[in-house]
Amino acid sequence: MNKLRIENHMKSRSLSAVAATAYRLLSQNIKLWTKRLWLWLLCIAAASGIAYTASILIMSEKDSMTTLALWGVAFVAVAAEIFLYACASGSIMAVLKEQNVKPNIFRALRLALLIVLVYCVFVAIYYAISISLVIFWNIGVLYIHILIAIGMILIATIMAIPVCYSGMRYLSEDDEKLTSVIGKNYIIGLRHFWRLFLTVFVVMLVSMLLAVLLAAPLGVICLASMQNALGIYLGDPSGMPATQPLLIFLAAFIATIACSYVWLWQFFSIYYQYGSITTRIKEYEKAIID
Question: What is the pTM of this model?
Answer without folding.
Answer: 0.90
